[in-house]
Amino acid sequence: MATFLVVGAIIFTVGVLLYVAPAFLPPKRSLSPSVMETSVPLVTSGEETGPVTKLARSITWPQLIDPDADALTVDERRSIIDGLALVGDAWCAQVLAAAFPEEGEPLRESVIDAIGRCEGVVIPTLERAFKSHRVGERYAAVDAASRRGDVELLERGLRDTDGTVALAAAYGLVRAGRRDLVDAGLSGRDDVRATEIRRALPALA
Question: pTM for this structure?
Answer without folding.
Answer: 0.72
